[in-house]
Amino acid sequence: MKIIMQYGVGLEGVDINAATEQKIKVARIPGSTTGNAIACAEMAIYLTLGVLRKQKEMDTAVIQKDLGLPVGETIFGKTILILGFGAIGMEIAKRLRPFGVKILATKRNWSSNTVSCDLDGLVDKKSGPEDMYELAREADIVITCMTLNNESVGIVDHKFLSALKKGSYLINIARGRLLDYTAVFNHLESGHLGGLGIDVAWTEPFDPEDPILKFPNVIITPHVAGITEYSYRTMAKICYLFL
């Protein structure tokens, strides 16, 4: 074996140290080149609207033949914090701006931005991860799209969630272990967290009996944010050309 080509972005499933010892090259496909970032951004918007408009409760209302229920919320006028302003975060901001929202964002190094984009036109307030708690106090909605590493595991914890306004919403389309399960569960149970929309889980495949699903304000999708016909076709082409 000469190379391991990850069919996607995340490399957490690859033992890099073992590959290095065996002199096996490891490569991945940047999401900005395949449509993956765009697909994930669209899913973030979908989940955001889903929790705001109370998707689960609407499903129940249809079954019970209740018209005009539930009363949802608009995204217009909301303050949205994007945790991790990489390729996906940027595409999310592009799609959020027309909704009439205020956008806050964190990034480890803003000077490292290599994408041609008017950041000042997209982001109302930029900051580093060290200021995430301060930004959390302003946010109505938090969208997590950070890279999972030793520093970011469980970064959305009790301290962070407690800093949010009561009734704020949390969306995660990155990696499940960015969220501290117990903290999220407790804040949903107390009502401090207004809703949760996730495309990734703490363990996958997700346990359909997980008690977090008992909450009517929780929406989960089966890790399909980046899975679209366009992104798969583009990734296949890149792998073919690379190999």
From TrEMBL:
InterPro entries: D-isomer_2_OHA_DH_cat_dom, D-isomer_DH_CS, D-isomer_DH_NAD-bd, NAD(P)-bd_dom_sf. Residues 2-238 form the D-isomer specific 2-hydroxyacid dehydrogenase catalytic domain. Pfam families: 2-Hacid_dh (PF00389), 2-Hacid_dh_C (PF02826). The keyword Cytoplasm does not apply. GO terms for molecular function: NAD binding; phosphoglycerate dehydrogenase activity. It comes from the Eukaryota. SUPFAM superfamilies: Formate/glycerate dehydrogenase catalytic domain-like (SSF52283), NAD(P)-binding Rossmann-fold domains (SSF51735). Keywords: Oxidoreductase. Residues 47-225 form the D-isomer specific 2-hydroxyacid dehydrogenase NAD-binding domain. Belongs to the D-isomer specific 2-hydroxyacid dehydrogenase family. This is D-isomer specific 2-hydroxyacid dehydrogenase NAD-binding domain-containing protein. It comes from Aegilops tauschii subsp. strangulata. The lineage of its organism: Eukaryota, Viridiplantae, Streptophyta, Embryophyta, Tracheophyta.
